[in-house]
């Protein structure tokens, strides 16, 4: 049985990631079912403290979607839902268990592997995931080349550097 009643200290050792689903191509029943199946099997077997936050971004009269796409760096104005899977180590202390990375990644994969190959999902840029492959596209979409140019002008010394920081133009493949 999944225990969600425990209290947590202010300390935590966790891994989180995100999935932003496009409003114009909603998740299929198969994708939703696969995620629920994954959580109901693998989730119950996990010895981590985990949860999945689900936020409604889009829909009729969404303030997020009312801002024109190219007005800001935020590339996911067409998002309907944002998921943030999160798992803590069993005692909230380091080290984070290696197998728990796969558990959290599996939550997202259970959805994305049950959607069309060209499904244009994204990830929320403020939920930093330094293990994320193709983060340039997933965080910033078509805005990334413009952000690279801004980085070159505004931060030529590369002061703002972290694993998923905007890179100088042509530094990634």
TrEMBL record:
Cofactors, names only: FAD
InterPro entries (UniProt xref): BBE, FAD-bd_PCMH_sub2, FAD-linked_Oxidoreductase
Pfam families in UniProt: BBE (PF08031)
Residues annotated as signal peptide: none
Domain of life: Eukaryota
Keywords for the protein's UniProt record, in alphabetical order: FAD, Flavoprotein, Oxidoreductase
Coiled-coil annotated residue ranges, if any: none
GO MF annotation, one: oxidoreductase activity
Membrane-crossing residue ranges in chain numbering: none
Keyword Signal annotated: no
Stretches assigned to the Berberine/berberine-like domain: 124-167
Protein's UniProt name: Berberine/berberine-like domain-containing protein
Organism: Dendrothele bispora (strain CBS 962.96)
Upper taxonomic lineage: Eukaryota, Fungi, Dikarya, Basidiomycota, Agaricomycotina
